[in-house]
Known about the structure:
Elements: H1 3-34
Amino acid sequence: MSAVRIAGVRKTVRQFSVAVVACMAVAGGAALVAAPDSASAPVSQQAGAENDWPKASPTPVAPTN
């Protein structure tokens, strides 16, 4: 590869990385604007040991064909 081609590749990579950073910044800003406030957002609870869900069947059920 010649020096001109390497410089062209570097320029292309630099422009692509700038475009990716710009898109990520715009997407992040849009996500912040579209996200509901933390006070109004519903709180979801994860199932834990005290939740007892799903309950296991006490007796196995025979399959019906």
